[in-house]
Amino acid sequence: MRAIHHWDLWVDDFETASGEWGWLFGELGWEAGEKGHFWEAPDGTYVFMEHSTDQHGTQDRLRPGVNHIAFTVESREVLDRMRAASTEHGWHEMYADRYPHAGGEEHTALYLESSEGFEVEIVLEVDDLTA
Question: For the chain, which domains are there?
Fold first, then answer.
């Protein structure tokens, strides 16, 4: 059984967000669905992105709510490749001076922030102190 069924991602700039998130999900092995606003993981978990007239205000991960979401990758090579390409796809690397151990010496991860302020953490699935 998968841990998460799906989640909805509300964005302000649909076109920009589609490019940023589309690249990220593609790197993670998720398949794109209808019209660039739906992606599905190999386990069936999916995300649906939309812009809604019900929205008000902007994303602020430092306010009450969800701070970030963490995804896993299976190799350090994927993590390094994502780091190298993230900027050209609209993502800003957080804690670059402490990569890949910004979360601690026993935690190998890449921290990214989208143009709208969404934070994602890409975690090496099997932490390896030599990674």
Answer: 6-124 (3.10.180.10)
